[in-house]
Amino acid sequence: MLWLYAQPGFLDINLFGANLRDLFQVREVALSTAVWVGFIALFGIATDDGVVITTYLKQSIEKNSPSDKEGIRKAVVEAGARRVRPCLMTTATTLLALLPVLTSTGRGSDIMLPMAIPVFGGMTIELLTMFVVPTLYCWQKELRLKRQK
């Protein structure tokens, strides 16, 4: 997202008479302490989502105690499907909460905007954890099952 903010054509769209480039104050952002604080916040949120998914995956595997590859996959799909909503809600609330920060122009916005850009961009990509974490967990459990045989 930091790279996109520096690109000349990014968000150069008029919507309801307002240019999105002006609304979101699109300009080049230098790597500052505020940007790194934004990255730390992003890593914390992404890790939290991973822990939420992994915890339920572990509980599902323990409850079903599968003995074959198909059983593992069924337990992982069941657990992953049950944790989609909490992870989506975390992402949605974070993205919605950052919209006022990205559009602010008052006092302090020069610090808050560089902090919000990595979090906003990362949260859009962070949605992949809902697919990557269950897939890697399933792969790890299948490898462990294969080694036991």
Describe the structure.
Helix 3 packs antiparallel against helix 5 and helix 3 (33-64) packs parallel to helix 6. The mean pLDDT is 88. The protein is mostly helical. The chain has a two-stranded antiparallel sheet with strand order 1-2. The longest helix has 32 residues, at 33-64. 75% of the residues lie in helices and 3% in strands. It has one domain: Multidrug efflux transporter AcrB transmembrane domain (Multidrug efflux transporter AcrB transmembrane fold).
Gross morphology is elongated
Order of helices and strands: HEEHHHHHH
User: What is the level-2 CATH architecture name?
Assistant: Up-down Bundle
CATH superfamily: Multidrug efflux transporter AcrB transmembrane domain
CATH class: Mainly Alpha
Report the portion of residues in β strands.
under 5%
Specify the structural class: mainly alpha
Which stretches are poorly predicted, pLDDT < 50 over at least 5 residues? none
Keywords:
two-stranded antiparallel ribbon, transmembrane helix, mainly alpha, 149 residues, Multidrug efflux transporter AcrB transmembrane fold
Question: Which helices and strands occur, and which strands form pairs?
Answer:
Elements: H1 2-5, E1 14-15, E2 18-19, H2 20-23, H3 33-64, H4 69-82, H5 84-103, H6 109-126, H7 129-148
Antiparallel strand pairs: 1-2
